[in-house]
Design a protein that fits this description.
heterodimer, A: 468 residues, mainly alpha, Formate dehydrogenase/DMSO reductase fold, 71% helix, 0% strand, globular, B: 181 residues, alpha+beta, Alpha-Beta Plaits, 2 domains, four-stranded antiparallel beta sheet, 5 helices, 4 strands, 45% helix, 15% strand, elongated
Chain lengths: 468, 181
């Protein structure tokens, strides 16, 4: 008797179900695969048209850049890294939330991640594509990019592996490869589902090939589960290492404002912060357009809002620490760099950053804001903007005033800078829309695995009630 | 029984849910079958134990790949910076291994990731034309089907007796699937 009461109490305390509407396994398959089996929606074509238009602008501007050289950007003598590097750090940071959701939350057995992990992983890959593009075109002589690779050559020269730029090349390249592998391995069972439902010959062939003959036998699942665990395990340190290494591009230099040891953790927190905001923005749009409200529930969004609040405060703490250390170091160049950052010519950008990244997330203390779609959408857009400005502040305001006052200059972006950034969103959304249209946007097999009836002891629990 | 131009490949039997499939797995194993498997839309907790499966050895492959990648990367950096093209950076030693760590780590992870992918595909044997795809009942495994599959090659296999056995342990739909020759 007493054990029954205990169980009732536990039920009251229990979390709401991960997937709303108590669907059957078949229902999960139906809802998700129908999205890619149904006729394409008109609004998808509209969105895709706009995205590809932006993408073609990007293509044209890259061509122009390669033809003319990096002079078409607003780069000046002290500000040798302009918007391209700002955009690079912004996009690569976005990607980190995807890996955090797919890998770290998997290892922490956070089952709520199953609804959003496919989504977030795809976002990671497309964000890293955008990120990789910027340093690639930023090298100027793009046809010499292969000099990064350690290839034997007639000059007997080798790359300088002590340079953070080389570390970055390897770190982001590895990150991209691992993200794609993780994403694809996760997709295999779902590709098999689409294959097995396919009616048209072409769909059967394409998904048949991609599904690699998946048969879902336990002899496959047992290796698959280990593979997934290993991929989660090796991706987890990447969440910390990739943006840490990106931060060393700055931190190993001697420029005041960059030369700080706080950069790696500060960058990682900012990356997760911005990435969660982007996942949330995309998830809210997907919930409106596609019938996935039962999978990405308001509880999922609330959990993400809590992560944004936490990481936002870590970022705010890092901003404060930077100032404290600048003062505490007693180094007049450091002090100058930080006073100028907040109150100099770029002060406007600094305060946009602080408002968006530190003040705005404070709304997430309120349950009402965390559970209201409109609030969530608006606040995450602000976070996305704020995090772009963070990178702008770090890169541009710092570079514009170095050790030699005679070379100080104010950075003005050109129209090419502006449209290249807009175009990169075109690239991102084109890829994302293709993903939404042609691949299962929610990891069906994982979602089925967290439904209550997936637990072999579920029936016993239901029948036996309190007999623990 | 098989006709002249048809060959029986095996039997597929559907069970109601995860608990039923685990019970069935225990019984099929106890009955002494050797060439069989349980197919499900997602991995079922406790199935390895029910089927008496050993732990996957994929980890060893991945570990070996990571060590090869990491040591190769460290060697390449050290050799190129200290021997092939010695150059002093910031007055540091030629073999300044601290600065080689990030790339050593990245390449270890890279090799481990590829090792996981190709190791997995190698172990599970990618086979686009697997005999099971001849079955009409089989494709439901990727939707909501919980299936036991016993191959015709199993020494204990007999179409009628095996079917009766599977029915006796709670199977719903069953299919003896065959291939035209």
């Amino acid at each position: 008797m007493s054990s029954i009461i205990t169980n009732e109490k536990l039920n009251v305390m229990a979390e709401p179900p991960l997937i709303a509407g108590n669907p059957t396994f078949g229902k999960v398959t139906d809802v998700i695969t129908k999205i890619l089996e149904d006729k394409t929606q008109f609004r998808w074509y509209v969105a895709f048209g706009i995205s590809t238009l932006m993408l073609s602008v990007l293509g044209g501007l890259i061509g122009y850049l390669i033809w003319e050289g990096t002079g078409v950007w607003g780069l000046t003598n002290p500000v040798g890294w302009g918007w391209a590097i700002v955009n690079f750090v912004f996009w690569v940071g976005i990607g980190h939330a995807g890996t955090l959701i797919s890998a770290v939350l998997f290892l922490l057995r956070q089952k709520w991640r199953t609804s959003i992990n496919r989504f977030a992983e795809s976002m990671t890959i497309f964000a890293v594509v955008c990120a990789l593009m910027f340093p690639t075109i930023h090298v100027g002589r793009i046809w010499l990019l292969y000099w990064f690779a350690p290839l034997p050559n007639q000059m007997g020269m080798w790359p300088n592996f002590r340079s953070p730029l080389m570390w970055d090349f390897f770190a982001v390249g590895t990150y991209f490869a691992c993200s794609i592998i993780f994403w694809f391995v996760g997709l295999i069972p779902d590709l098999a589902t689409v294959r097995d439902r396919a009616v048209s010959k072409i769909r059967k062939v394409i998904f048949g090939v991609l599904a690699l003959g998946w048969r879902g036998g336990n002899s496959q699942w047992k290796h698959y589960e280990v593979a997934y665990l290993i991929l989660a395990g090796i991706s987890t340190p990447l969440v910390l290492s990739v943006h840490s290494i990106v931060s060393t591009d700055f931190a190993t230099s001697i420029i005041p404002g960059w030369h700080t040891t706080i950069f790696p953790p500060y960058f990682v927190a900012g990356a997760i912060f911005s990435g969660f905001a982007m996942v949330m923005t995309l998830a809210i749009i997907a919930r409106i357009v596609y019938p996935v409200k039962n999978f990405i529930t308001i509880n999922h969004l609330e959990k993400m809002a809590k992560v944004i609040l936490l990481t936002g405060m870590m970022v705010g703490y890092a901003y404060a620490t930077e100032f404290f250390i600048a003062w505490y170091s007693g180094n007049s160049y450091e002090r100058f760099a930080f006073v100028r950052r907040a109150f100099g010519p770029y002060g406007w950008a600094y305060w946009i950053m602080v408002s968006c990244n530190v003040l705005i997330p404070q709304f997430f203390w309120f349950r009402k804001c965390r559970r209201n779609i409109v609030w969530l959408f608006i606040l995450t857009i602000f976070v996305n903007i704020g995090m772009w400005f963070e990178r702008f502040v770090i890169v541009i305001s710092t570079l514009s005033a170095d050790f030699l006052p005679s070379s100080w200059d104010y950075y003005h972006p050109t129209w090419v800078d502006v449209w290249t950034l807009i175009g990169s969103f075109g690239l991102f959304f084109t890829l994302f829309l293709l993903f939404l249209r042609f691949l299962p946007m929610i990891a069906m097999s994982e979602v089925k695995g967290v439904l209550p009836q997936a637990d072999p002891h579920h029936a016993h629990k239901a029948v036996e009630g309190g007999q623990a | 029984m098989s006709t002249v131009n048809k060959k029986i490949l095996g039997i597929v039997a559907q069970f109601a849910g995860t608990a039923e499939l685990i019970d069935a797995a225990v019984k099929v194993k106890a009955a002494g079958f050797s060439k069989w498997d349980c197919h499900s839309p997602f991995p079922i907790h406790g199935m390895d134990k029910a089927m008496g499966e050993k732990r996957s050895n994929l980890g060893w492959i991945v570990g070996a790949c990571a060590i090869i990648g990491g040591s190769g990367a460290l060697w390449l950096q050290g050799w190129s910076a200290a021997s092939a093209y010695p150059h002093v950076i910031s007055g540091k030693a030629l073999f300044s291994y601290q600065a080689f760590f990030p790339i050593t780590f990245a390449v270890s992870v890279l090799f481990a990731a590829f090792g996981t992918l190709f190791g997995l595909l190698g172990i599970i044997k990618v086979q686009w034309n697997h005999p099971l795809f001849e079955s009409k009942l089989f494709p439901c495994f990727s939707d909501d089907g919980f299936l036991v599959h016993i191959e015709a090659d199993d020494p204990q296999f007999d179409p009628e007796k095996t079917k009766a056995f599977l029915k006796s342990i709670g199977a719903g739909n069953t299919e003896i699937y065959e291939k035209s020759e």
